[in-house]
Amino acid sequence: MNRYIMLWGLVFFCTVTTTLAQGLMIRNYNVKDGLANATVYAAVQDKDGFIWFATPTGVSKFDGKRFRNYAKKDGLTDNDVVKLAADSEGRVWFFTLNGKPSFYDKSVIHSEENDTSLIFNSRSHYMQYAFEGKRGYIWFLNSNNRIVQYNGRKTTYDKLGASGADLFFLMRNDSIFHPLQASFHLESLKDPGNPDQKIYPVCPFPIEDAALHTRINDSAIVIIRNTIYSFTAKDAICFFNGAEWGIHDDISHMCIDNDNLWVGTQRALYFLKGFFKGERNAIRLLDNHYITSLLKDRDGNIWITTFGDGVYNIPYKNFYFSYLDNTNGLYSHSIFSISKDKKNNLLLIGQNAGILNMMDGQNRISKQFTLDTTSGRNSVLAILPRNDDQAIIGTDNGLYKFNTLTHKTSLLKAVKMLKDVDITASGKIRIAAKNQVIALDEYTIGDLDMLATSIACINDSDYYVGTNAGLYFCTDAKRQLVPAGADTLRKVSIKDLKWINGSLWIGTADQGIYVMQQDAIVKHLSTANNLASDICQQLYYDGIGRLYVATNRGVSVIDIKTQSITRNITSNDGLNSDDIRGVYSDNGTLYIATSNGLCYFNADNIPVDTVPPVIYLNNIRYGDSTFLPADDFVHLYKRKASFEAEFGTIVFDLPELVEYQYNFSGDTTNGWVTTMSNIIPFPDLQPGGYRLMVRARKYKSDWSKTLTMDVDILPRWYQQWWARGILLLAALLGILAGLRYIIRRIKQAEKRKTEYNRRIAELEAKALTNQMNPHFIFNSLNSVQHLILEKEEKQALNFLADFATLMRQMLNNSRKSYISLEEEIAFLTRYLELEKIRFAHSFTYHFIMEDALKEYTIYIPPMIIQPIVENAIKHGLAPKNISGYLEIRLEMVDDLLYCSVDDDGIGWDKSNSIKSSRLIKHESTALSVIKERLQIIKSFNGSVGKLEIIDKFKSGFGNKEGTLVEILIPIVKML
């Protein structure tokens, strides 16, 4: 943190009289703040605005908030840098004892190690002074009195040196050689090359002469011991003689600040205020400090480098303010009240310990008085002018009358815990103290159950009383406090009251300001309305339309007419503290009493720096690497690497209040992010092109010009569009291959399952077919038995032979899922021939086959028609007493084989009426097996079969008897 020091000085006059003068707020920077060394030899400001400091351990670059230190490891030719010079090209030159030239430019230190133009044999002579010429040429004068030239391409001894050119030659020709240092230290002004030059040990012109002032600013400055000369080829004029000002030490450095002159010596710093106006006002500062250099920067700040005590800075705005505290005349730095006796032009300053100080019209502390000598708290809380040469002063323990002419003090009334005093126009005094209200010499209202904190008189008989429990009204007639105002003020803690032109202004402890007219609140001002703080400590009215509100965070100025806040004044503007106890205004000068001293200044001339700050890029960090600043940044993408841009501003006044805004969207109107941090992080920045825009603003300034940087994060090969396309395609192909494999596995599983089910269905069909075989065999064997019993052995043998052939054919067919239609017809023909033999040729049969069936090879399940034919013979034709007829018709219907078995037997219903359990059982078994086979065939083939039994007599076939069985059989058709 920066240190602030209040310094006071001695003003020296020819009469050797001394008085105490105003102090200056001086800021100190040292090693703990980041400075390279407490010993600082020199300071310069470069073209960009940075302040550079030369130290024995390197150089420091300062932007107002941060020091960036450079040493030999960073490129310096030597750590011991004794002088600095900044040229118009933006280069900062470093003068080291080894004599090797080097400079800083565009974030890089240039030396012979990295810049061949700086290779030079110094012969152990170091550079002392630097001059700049046209086209950026730099001339140096070294300790061997030789001139060295740098032209941007090489560094050489200049031919001027061979002709005897020296420092005087360079100074005489200032139109060619512009000095890069503020002054020159010489032992003598005698110039051998210019015998006609006149030397004036005493200035022949009045020091306030404007022409002289211009000449001094435009010409070289020469310091000889404790005198300062303005040097030209024509003459050298002494415009400052230290002995005349009581300065007998050698002058180490000087600085011209408008009409002021700063002089540094090995023992102290001298501030000659108004020197070029002819004023004889010298302030001795930094006593016992060795001043090595002085610098006035572009903003008007003064920089003082010292030998062993770091760097001191006096902000430009502090010259607009005057400060008083216990270091330069006051008893204490804690000020509680302030007022003025305008007749005698005396400022009265109330402090703690009952001390009253007076300051005369020359801003000199003249006298000090002790009013309240009681123990404990005895601060001077209120000072009010009453009559000519008289002021009423309230302290913690009493009310006093003070004569400003005779300086006599008398106690008017001892009052414990006095809080506020007010005086009517006729001179009546009202007092608020602890739990009582006192009308002096008249009456006292005591034993209140609240704390009276303030009082405001309306006239000689009516007044308001502010308490910690709200607002009250009282009259001399009733002598009783009555609650006043709206309900809003019932429980508000009031700190001060001010009656102004029919309105009561109420300062509260935590709710800002209320304005009351005729018992009604007409205005409320708080921090929401830009009030400095809601904690009000005192109200002061200047009588010309401005109300000053003293708060714990500065002073707010309110326009009485508009009842609006016009401005705030805080320590950021130059006050020595934000804890304000009292305010007083007189003829444009504003006096502010604070807990850290008294500050006074021209209220209408407070400097406000509205110039936007200079913003710069400090460095870029990407991943683990740091890069120098540039207009653009291009880098290959690093996974999970953070991109950070570190920015800074050159702000020497209130650098901690600098705000930044950054935008990464490229939209200059939207997307701005506000931060107080100067490091802008972007974690895991993805490949792409970005535009980073940053701007800054300082206290009360506008936003700076936007600093823009293009950021290109290049993708890795696998992040390129073609690589991503290939990877995506490969991923899709992989997914498709995986899906195909899964689908294939599923299909194979389904196929295996279908095949398994088909095999099961086939086996079931074969098993059902095999159920038919025993039935047919049984019936056939019965027929053989019958033939044998009838003694028809030959016919029985023929039957057995045909039966054996049929059985062999049936066994072959039973192993197949499908057989051809021709094989089925051949099988049925052989079967019918056997049945004709068995039933003694009691029926005839006939096959009718559609011609379309002959074009294909038709495959059908085996043993599916035979049971129907067997039923027709057994149950339809056999019971008839006459010969019967059986017709088997085969046709194609929608890729199915239509088969009808038509007999002219007894009919289906009549057959079912025969009570033969064997026949019923056989019938139900045969038909149910056929239906089940058709269902199984459907399960693995998908074709739908059909079986229908029709009793012709009942179904509209006229008088015809018999049964018609129709069946649709799933087939396999091949050419």
From TrEMBL:
The keyword Cytoplasm does not apply. It comes from the Bacteria. Residues 764-842 form the Signal transduction histidine kinase internal region domain. Keywords: Coiled coil, Kinase, Membrane, Transferase, Transmembrane, Transmembrane helix. InterPro entries: Bact_2-comp_sensor_kinase, HATPase_C_sf, Ig-like_fold, Quinoprotein_ADH-like_sf, Reg_prop, Sig_transdc_His_kin_internal, WD40/YVTN_repeat-like_dom_sf. The chain crosses the membrane at residues 721-743. It holds the Pfam family Reg_prop. GO terms for molecular function: kinase activity. Residues 739-766 form a coiled coil. This is Histidine kinase.
